[in-house]
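Progress against Task 2.4 (sequence-to-structure conversion) is shown through the following example record, which the project officer requested during the mid-term review.
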Amino acid sequence: MAIYAHVSKKHDALPPLVLVHGLGSAGSIWKMLHEGLEDSFTIYALDLPGHGVAALDSGEELDPQSLARNIVEYLESEHGITTFHVAGNSLGGWITLEMAALFPDRVLSVTALAPAGLWDGGPTSKFPPTIDARILAKISQFFMPLAYRIPALKAVGYKKITHLWRELSYETCRDSVVAMAQASGFTPMWSALRHKNFSSKIPNLVRVSVIFGEHDLTLPNPAAQLRNKTPEHTRWIIVENCPHVIMWNYPKLTSDFIKETALGY
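C-alpha coordinates generated for the chain above:
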Protein backbone atom coordinates (compact mmCIF):
# COMPACT_ATOMS: atom_id res chain seq x y z
CA MET A 1 0.00 0.00 0.00
CA ALA A 2 1.28 3.46 -0.94
CA ILE A 3 1.71 5.58 2.19
CA TYR A 4 4.22 8.37 2.68
CA ALA A 5 5.41 10.05 5.88
CA HIS A 6 6.74 13.61 6.00
CA VAL A 7 9.17 13.46 8.92
CA SER A 8 10.07 16.45 11.10
CA LYS A 9 12.37 16.05 14.10
CA LYS A 10 14.74 18.08 16.23
CA HIS A 11 16.54 15.08 17.70
CA ASP A 12 16.18 11.30 17.81
CA ALA A 13 15.21 11.06 21.47
CA LEU A 14 11.75 12.55 20.99
CA PRO A 15 8.84 10.05 20.89
CA PRO A 16 7.11 9.47 17.54
CA LEU A 17 3.81 11.18 16.83
CA VAL A 18 1.91 9.94 13.77
CA LEU A 19 -0.57 12.38 12.20
CA VAL A 20 -3.35 11.07 9.94
CA HIS A 21 -5.33 13.43 7.71
CA GLY A 22 -8.92 13.15 6.53
CA LEU A 23 -10.60 12.42 3.20
CA GLY A 24 -9.38 14.66 0.40
CA SER A 25 -6.63 16.19 2.53
CA ALA A 26 -2.89 15.51 2.94
CA GLY A 27 -0.07 15.61 5.47
CA SER A 28 0.30 19.34 4.78
CA ILE A 29 -2.83 20.01 6.87
CA TRP A 30 -0.75 19.55 10.02
CA LYS A 31 2.07 21.97 9.27
CA MET A 32 0.58 24.80 11.36
CA LEU A 33 0.94 22.47 14.37
CA HIS A 34 4.64 21.75 13.92
CA GLU A 35 5.72 24.75 15.97
CA GLY A 36 3.67 23.57 18.94
CA LEU A 37 4.64 19.89 18.64
CA GLU A 38 8.21 19.62 17.38
CA ASP A 39 9.79 20.26 20.79
CA SER A 40 7.90 17.25 22.20
CA PHE A 41 7.74 14.74 19.33
CA THR A 42 9.29 13.44 16.17
CA ILE A 43 6.46 14.15 13.74
CA TYR A 44 5.35 11.70 11.04
CA ALA A 45 2.67 13.48 8.98
CA LEU A 46 1.23 10.86 6.66
CA ASP A 47 -0.09 11.04 3.12
CA LEU A 48 -2.69 8.28 2.72
CA PRO A 49 -3.02 6.38 -0.58
CA GLY A 50 -4.10 8.67 -3.38
CA HIS A 51 -3.48 11.77 -1.26
CA GLY A 52 -0.54 14.18 -1.20
CA VAL A 53 2.48 12.51 -2.79
CA ALA A 54 1.28 8.95 -2.06
CA ALA A 55 0.20 6.96 -5.11
CA LEU A 56 -3.05 5.03 -5.39
CA ASP A 57 -2.32 1.40 -6.22
CA SER A 58 -5.02 -0.62 -7.94
CA GLY A 59 -6.73 -3.27 -5.88
CA GLU A 60 -5.66 -2.01 -2.45
CA GLU A 61 -8.10 -2.06 0.45
CA LEU A 62 -9.03 1.47 1.56
CA ASP A 63 -11.46 0.89 4.41
CA PRO A 64 -10.42 2.39 7.79
CA GLN A 65 -9.33 -0.93 9.32
CA SER A 66 -7.16 -1.85 6.35
CA LEU A 67 -5.62 1.62 6.30
CA ALA A 68 -4.91 1.35 10.04
CA ARG A 69 -3.20 -2.01 9.63
CA ASN A 70 -1.12 -0.85 6.69
CA ILE A 71 -0.03 2.35 8.41
CA VAL A 72 1.36 0.36 11.35
CA GLU A 73 3.14 -2.04 9.00
CA TYR A 74 4.53 0.86 6.96
CA LEU A 75 5.86 2.65 10.05
CA GLU A 76 7.77 -0.43 11.14
CA SER A 77 9.08 -1.49 7.74
CA GLU A 78 10.06 1.96 6.45
CA HIS A 79 10.92 3.86 9.64
CA GLY A 80 11.60 1.18 12.26
CA ILE A 81 8.88 2.53 14.57
CA THR A 82 7.06 0.03 16.76
CA THR A 83 5.50 2.27 19.45
CA PHE A 84 4.07 5.74 18.90
CA HIS A 85 1.35 8.28 19.65
CA VAL A 86 -1.27 9.05 17.02
CA ALA A 87 -3.60 11.92 16.20
CA GLY A 88 -6.05 12.20 13.32
CA ASN A 89 -8.80 14.40 11.96
CA SER A 90 -12.14 13.26 10.49
CA LEU A 91 -11.50 10.01 8.56
CA GLY A 92 -7.99 10.16 9.97
CA GLY A 93 -9.45 10.21 13.48
CA TRP A 94 -11.43 7.06 12.71
CA ILE A 95 -8.29 5.39 11.36
CA THR A 96 -6.33 6.23 14.51
CA LEU A 97 -9.05 4.62 16.64
CA GLU A 98 -8.79 1.48 14.51
CA MET A 99 -5.01 1.53 14.92
CA ALA A 100 -5.40 1.52 18.71
CA ALA A 101 -7.93 -1.32 18.57
CA LEU A 102 -5.76 -3.45 16.29
CA PHE A 103 -2.40 -2.66 17.91
CA PRO A 104 -2.89 -1.61 21.55
CA ASP A 105 0.66 -2.73 22.30
CA ARG A 106 2.03 -0.21 19.81
CA VAL A 107 -0.33 2.77 19.99
CA LEU A 108 0.40 4.67 23.21
CA SER A 109 -2.30 7.32 22.85
CA VAL A 110 -4.97 8.53 20.43
CA THR A 111 -6.12 12.11 19.94
CA ALA A 112 -9.10 11.84 17.61
CA LEU A 113 -10.09 15.26 16.29
CA ALA A 114 -13.69 15.18 15.06
CA PRO A 115 -13.36 11.51 14.10
CA ALA A 116 -15.67 9.97 11.53
CA GLY A 117 -17.27 6.59 12.14
CA LEU A 118 -19.07 7.40 15.40
CA TRP A 119 -22.49 6.83 13.90
CA ASP A 120 -24.98 3.99 13.54
CA GLY A 121 -25.06 2.19 10.22
CA GLY A 122 -22.91 4.32 7.98
CA PRO A 123 -23.17 6.77 5.07
CA THR A 124 -25.12 5.45 2.10
CA SER A 125 -24.59 8.20 -0.47
CA LYS A 126 -22.53 7.22 -3.49
CA PHE A 127 -20.66 10.51 -3.33
CA PRO A 128 -19.24 12.37 -0.30
CA PRO A 129 -21.02 15.55 0.80
CA THR A 130 -17.90 17.55 -0.11
CA ILE A 131 -17.92 16.44 -3.77
CA ASP A 132 -18.77 20.00 -4.89
CA ALA A 133 -15.71 21.29 -3.01
CA ARG A 134 -13.55 18.78 -4.89
CA ILE A 135 -14.94 19.90 -8.25
CA LEU A 136 -14.30 23.52 -7.35
CA ALA A 137 -10.80 22.67 -6.09
CA LYS A 138 -9.87 21.00 -9.39
CA ILE A 139 -10.79 24.25 -11.16
CA SER A 140 -9.65 26.91 -8.70
CA GLN A 141 -6.20 25.39 -8.06
CA PHE A 142 -5.04 27.17 -11.20
CA PHE A 143 -6.05 30.66 -10.02
CA MET A 144 -5.88 30.44 -6.23
CA PRO A 145 -4.85 34.07 -5.50
CA LEU A 146 -7.95 35.28 -7.36
CA ALA A 147 -10.30 32.59 -6.02
CA TYR A 148 -9.28 33.37 -2.45
CA ARG A 149 -10.41 36.99 -2.88
CA ILE A 150 -13.87 36.04 -4.22
CA PRO A 151 -16.14 35.40 -1.21
CA ALA A 152 -18.70 33.41 -3.22
CA LEU A 153 -16.06 30.90 -4.36
CA LYS A 154 -14.54 30.65 -0.90
CA ALA A 155 -18.00 30.03 0.55
CA VAL A 156 -18.72 27.18 -1.90
CA GLY A 157 -15.43 25.55 -1.00
CA TYR A 158 -15.62 25.86 2.78
CA LYS A 159 -19.10 26.79 4.01
CA LYS A 160 -20.12 23.12 4.47
CA ILE A 161 -17.01 22.52 6.57
CA THR A 162 -16.63 25.59 8.75
CA HIS A 163 -18.79 28.53 9.82
CA LEU A 164 -15.49 30.43 10.20
CA TRP A 165 -14.65 30.15 6.50
CA ARG A 166 -14.10 33.90 6.17
CA GLU A 167 -11.20 33.67 8.66
CA LEU A 168 -9.22 31.00 6.81
CA SER A 169 -5.77 32.15 5.72
CA TYR A 170 -4.59 32.06 2.13
CA GLU A 171 -1.99 29.39 2.99
CA THR A 172 -4.63 27.15 4.57
CA CYS A 173 -6.92 27.52 1.57
CA ARG A 174 -4.12 27.01 -0.94
CA ASP A 175 -2.87 23.83 0.74
CA SER A 176 -6.35 22.36 1.16
CA VAL A 177 -7.37 23.18 -2.41
CA VAL A 178 -4.25 21.56 -3.88
CA ALA A 179 -4.68 18.51 -1.63
CA MET A 180 -8.34 18.10 -2.56
CA ALA A 181 -7.78 18.70 -6.29
CA GLN A 182 -5.01 16.11 -6.49
CA ALA A 183 -6.62 13.46 -4.23
CA SER A 184 -7.10 10.52 -6.58
CA GLY A 185 -8.05 8.46 -3.54
CA PHE A 186 -10.99 10.71 -2.65
CA THR A 187 -13.84 8.73 -4.20
CA PRO A 188 -12.32 5.23 -3.73
CA MET A 189 -11.74 5.90 -0.03
CA TRP A 190 -15.28 7.21 0.41
CA SER A 191 -16.65 4.09 -1.29
CA ALA A 192 -14.62 1.91 1.08
CA LEU A 193 -16.15 3.48 4.22
CA ARG A 194 -19.78 3.48 3.08
CA HIS A 195 -22.13 1.44 5.30
CA LYS A 196 -19.42 1.13 7.95
CA ASN A 197 -18.85 2.56 11.42
CA PHE A 198 -16.31 2.31 14.20
CA SER A 199 -17.24 -0.69 16.34
CA SER A 200 -13.84 -2.00 17.46
CA LYS A 201 -12.74 -2.26 21.08
CA ILE A 202 -9.81 -0.30 22.52
CA PRO A 203 -8.24 -1.57 25.77
CA ASN A 204 -7.95 0.74 28.78
CA LEU A 205 -4.16 0.81 28.49
CA VAL A 206 -4.42 3.14 25.46
CA ARG A 207 -5.14 6.78 26.37
CA VAL A 208 -7.93 8.15 24.16
CA SER A 209 -9.24 11.69 23.68
CA VAL A 210 -12.08 12.57 21.32
CA ILE A 211 -12.45 16.25 20.52
CA PHE A 212 -15.32 17.82 18.60
CA GLY A 213 -16.17 21.43 17.85
CA GLU A 214 -19.61 22.56 18.95
CA HIS A 215 -20.16 23.87 15.39
CA ASP A 216 -19.10 20.76 13.48
CA LEU A 217 -21.09 21.01 10.24
CA THR A 218 -19.51 17.92 8.69
CA LEU A 219 -20.10 15.43 11.52
CA PRO A 220 -22.90 17.01 13.57
CA ASN A 221 -24.04 16.07 17.04
CA PRO A 222 -25.74 13.78 17.90
CA ALA A 223 -25.99 11.63 14.76
CA ALA A 224 -22.23 11.49 14.07
CA GLN A 225 -20.97 11.88 17.64
CA LEU A 226 -22.23 8.78 19.46
CA ARG A 227 -20.22 8.44 22.65
CA ASN A 228 -21.14 4.79 23.09
CA LYS A 229 -19.00 4.00 20.04
CA THR A 230 -15.82 4.88 21.94
CA PRO A 231 -14.25 3.21 25.01
CA GLU A 232 -15.64 4.08 28.43
CA HIS A 233 -12.30 5.60 29.44
CA THR A 234 -12.35 8.09 26.54
CA ARG A 235 -11.88 11.75 27.45
CA TRP A 236 -14.49 13.73 25.49
CA ILE A 237 -13.96 17.43 24.87
CA ILE A 238 -16.30 19.87 23.12
CA VAL A 239 -14.66 23.10 21.96
CA GLU A 240 -16.78 26.24 21.80
CA ASN A 241 -17.14 28.10 18.50
CA CYS A 242 -15.10 25.41 16.77
CA PRO A 243 -15.69 23.83 13.33
CA HIS A 244 -14.79 20.39 11.94
CA VAL A 245 -11.12 21.05 11.20
CA ILE A 246 -10.00 22.42 14.54
CA MET A 247 -6.36 23.05 13.55
CA TRP A 248 -7.38 25.55 10.87
CA ASN A 249 -8.67 27.99 13.47
CA TYR A 250 -7.09 26.82 16.74
CA PRO A 251 -3.61 25.38 16.07
CA LYS A 252 -2.17 26.02 19.54
CA LEU A 253 -5.20 24.53 21.27
CA THR A 254 -4.96 21.48 19.00
CA SER A 255 -1.28 21.01 19.84
CA ASP A 256 -2.08 21.32 23.53
CA PHE A 257 -4.78 18.64 23.30
CA ILE A 258 -2.36 16.24 21.61
CA LYS A 259 0.33 16.86 24.21
CA GLU A 260 -2.14 16.50 27.09
CA THR A 261 -3.32 13.14 25.76
CA ALA A 262 0.08 11.79 24.86
CA LEU A 263 2.28 13.20 27.61
CA GLY A 264 -0.17 14.01 30.38
CA TYR A 265 0.25 17.80 30.46
